[in-house]
Specification:
Largest sheet: 22 strands, antiparallel, barrel
Radius of gyration: 28 Å
Distance between the termini: 47 Å
Mean pLDDT: 85
Structural class: mainly beta
Length: 793
Amino acid sequence: MIILLLTSAFSSQAQYNISGNVTNEQNEPIPYADIILLNSADSMILRTEVADSSGHYSLVTSGVSHVLLKIIAVGFANKIYAVTDTVNFAIKLDFILAADNHELGAVTVSAQKPLFERKADRIIFNVASSMTAIGGNALDAVKKAPGVIVKQEDNSINLAGKSGVVVLLNGRPLQLTGDDLVSYLQSIPSDDIDRIEVITTPPAQYDAAGNSGLINIVLKKNNRNGFNGDVRAGYEQSVYGTGIGGINFNYRAGKWNLYGSASYTDGAKDIIETVNTYYPTGAALLADAYKKTTRGLQYILGVDYQVHKNGILGVQFTGSDIVRLDNENIKIQNLTLNNPVPDSTVHTNAWQHGKKDDNSLNLNYVWNIDTAGKKLTVNANRLWYTNDKNRQYETRDYYGNFLSPTGVNSMNINTGNQNIHIATAQTDVELPDKLVNVSFGAKASFIDNNSDNGFLYYANGNYINDPAISDNFSYTENVQALYLSLQKTLLKWNFQAGLRGEATQIRSYSISQSLGSNGNYANVFPTAYAGYTFDKDNVLNINFSKRINRPGYADMDPFRLYTTPYSYTEGNLFLRPSYSQNLELNYVWKGRFNFTAFYQFEQNSFGKLFFTDSNSIYVKSANYGNNSSYGITVLAPYNPLPWWNMQVQASGYVQETEYSFYTATAQRYQKPAFYISDGNSFALNRSKTLLAELDMVYESGYLSDLFYRKPDGGVDAGIKSLFLDKKLVISLTANDVLATQRARGTNVVTGQTINDYFDTRNIRLILNYKFGNNKIKEKRERSTGIEGEQSRT
């Protein structure tokens, strides 16, 4: 079959591969220049490409007779070149652009990047081509990226039908998760985002962690010296209010570039979580209503220095300080069979104070070896993470529904201190060549986690430590990785293959349980891509990848964290990673409409499972079985009217779970599901200074771990106004207008039900002002190579 395909490819019309590098007069690479192929007769656009972060570009065309190449980059004079080499199929063309120091008059833009682009291993959402980019934030933009779903219940970011996504910023890991990640994304103006890359099958140079792949947020870059930035302030009102503030700045002079950012939020949410547990003789109904107050500060400070003509050395410090205060009111009602009136009630009041500090230091060196695109990148990282918590709670038992006290009271304190130290070193080499493009590299990571958790009970006027429950848990993990990736364009075909090998050594120990776990294992993670371009309107891609999903450090801590004397959560010392295999077939029609068929199989899946015993309800992390999902996703951007942009996404899929954790024989559950979203942006005047948005999302009932989840959805609306030559943006948005974003479901094994609401309906007012020279060169992109380790904290 392969021979027949290759024979067909060679017999079809010849394909020319034009590639090269775009640099300035100082031989520095110019990233993300637009490469436009024009018909020399009528200047009609035949094809467009964008150079990568190192200034390298590659463009495939069926012919080079009577064509022009036009190179466009912000801050530089355009260059037009007539292609004259019609003999060689691989044409090497480098371009040196001169700085454009002239003031621009009125400019009419006749073309821009398409809203969505499909590559072999990813789909690109060009945020800069969308009205979403004006006055919003990075979280708003991520929600509009193809197939991305943000779950309100735990602020996780997933893909339709899949889970386990790692989020990057400029190829650099965001070490935040959950609430902290969402708060940070909300601090980044979407005006500063160039594109969002949804990498469903990451190449071998990326860590193998993350079942569903990566989401890479790439910020804009310009090329002039000077100083600029933006400052923002806002207020969000749900049940309680939240204040929002932040600042970004960038200063470039000569060989130096200094940049930084800071964001701060201070506010609260009113959250209600319920779990109903059913027994043969009755039921236990647990309701937890609490006020969650969060004060968070995230900041980045970095400096780059051009040590020689083609080399840049940079240092970057990233920090996050989060303070969380919870005030809980928990009620457990116990009912006997066929009796709607509780026979007893347990009431718990709790107060929790927590503080998380997350700091990392990155040393980065990039050497652009030559103008052909050869490049060496070196990263060294050090991370320090602490999480201190103190939770005090008081419980009283009653007969009936608060009728009379039983006299059974208890007062307890949970204390927790988690310290994580991570060190990584990584080097990457890129060697493009006419025969084949080669990239290879190595990485080593060293992780040391120590958790000291205490349980105290009140007796005789003092709090006394209980050594049977208190615990010190230590965990170390070392990983060594090597990878090799090859890429080749052959006529209408584009091939890429990679192999990543990772060796892992783990050691863990629990003092209270006197249990330890040691393990050494090695895995290989292959990736393969093949693409065929029938013509400019029809492109077909197929890709495959194998991935690993390692559990978070807290998920492996066996300490029992009691929320009441009758309910607790605990980790699992013997939790092991899961492995997934991903296969995708993608078809792109007219460069806009994307159709993707996917299949994912996850082996040794793990999650938080519900259990009951004689007097407690508890949640424990465990490897429970295998998951699989398969389906079709459609992406269709559309312009019903010139002032109306619409993007419709739809996905239909089937999820299957096979488990043998609760029972001696394997059990299988299957559920079909679908997801649909409709995002609309409106320009309400010709100058596009008054904008509106309306977004609608609906997800049918679906299977998540061992829960049948009920349908979920929401409606968001907003309006934005631009003032002072578009430097000032005022936006007013209403999120989850109908308050329908709720987590509801039933456990397929135990019959437990959940019904949670996370105070997602709110109104938000944001003011964002840009200052300084907006045409300067911003901080360079870098990949620190610590995404997998940081995300697990």
